[in-house]
Amino acid sequence: MMYLDQQKYADKSKDEVLNELEDALNEIERLKNELRKYKNPNTPPSANQHLKQDKPPVRTSCKRGAPKNHPGVTRPWKDADETRAITADECPECHSHDISIIDMRHQQVEEMPPDIKPTIIDVYREVCKCNACKLKFEAKDGRTPLQGRFGVNLMVLTIFLKFIVRGVLRKTSRFLEAGFALRITPASVNAILSRASNAAESEYEELKRKIRVARIVYVDETSFSVLGAKWWVWVFRSDSDVLLVVRHDRGSPVVKEVLTENFKGIVVCDGWRAYDCLTSANIQRCWAHLLRKSAELDTVAGSHFHEKLEGLFKSIAQFNRKPHTEKERLEKYAQLTGELQKTIDYYSRHPECESVTKYVRFRLDEWFTCVKLDGVEPTNNYAEQAIRETVMVRKIIGAFRSRGGVKVYENLASLLATWQFQQRDITKELNRMLTKGLC
What we know:
Elements: H1 6-9, H2 14-36, E1 127-129, E2 136-138, H3 152-164, H4 169-180, H5 186-212, E3 216-226, E4 229-237, E5 242-247, H6 252-259, E6 266-269, E7 282-285, H7 287-295, H8 300-320, H9 326-347, H10 354-361, H11 369-372, H12 381-397, E8 399-400, H13 403-421, H14 426-438
Parallel strand pairs: 3-6, 3-8, 6-7
Antiparallel strand pairs: 1-2, 3-4, 4-5
Helix pairs in contact: 3-14, 4-5, 5-13, 5-14, 7-8, 8-9, 9-10
């Protein structure tokens, strides 16, 4: 209830008081709309740490520190490339030269060369003609790019700075000049990335093919500005691969393009209707999105509805802890779907719960696919984790300023995310890909 200061409004007319009250209500509504940008069912709580309440530290009787058998952070000793014997001539306090050596301390230091400069290589490449088939070709050595002024190792370093360290073109250029005495313009950095993207094209298409035949695919999308227009970055994640595509469309055409209409696997996604075109697939709707929606119901009936949904979600986790036969899974699927049907039928009588009950009823048979089929997650967290890097990039660069940059990001970000997911050596993979595609 809002209380007004009577003294403050004693000398004001009724119309003036009502106008001020209306302005205050409009401001409250504006602030609510602003808050919804950050706190809504489609935004995970981890994205808004600043909105979480500060909790006092949990005090336990255990001693703080690393757990037992922790490997520690001490670096292992290695074979030295150089030995330095550091001696003392005088006391640092009184400057006396009457000193005695009482011990010798062994220390190992890892250092970088003071000047790291690029190697300049003059390349004389034979241009040949086959006398048998008349083909003209240039000789290759498998390590020197056919085009451009930059070698493979330099291209790998540039890709690391741009994608792993998340450097913008201008800062990547400055770092190469400051750290490696290499004067290179932002345009040249962009040219290196474009050339690397062309070399990655075939592996990117192979990645797309693997996603289309995967058993389970987790899908999500987030907005991204391209040339001032609102586009969407889609992520498709399987058990072993991550594919990113950037499109101006957020609808079913993107799903059809990547997965095809005949996709017969399992798709874990949110409640967006773009996935309805996958008539041959098994769909699992995200329970995290649903529970975030129901958690916003602040009435008594809404709170009870949320608790019921939470109970069904816990039933999924409890059931999936143990292995089950196909028959047991089908029976549990039918049981939980029936309970969900009864729950939304009951709470649909409350107007404040209507939006959530409609959300559930729209695809009632797609909430317990994770019970019917083995190995399926009830939430879309895997896709949200995979797209988190794109959200960070969006915060740093703000927008893609060319369509070429869109293609570069698709190709290289997809391969880097996949190699990281598979725990491969990214340096070796980049060297292999660039050598194969450019040399």
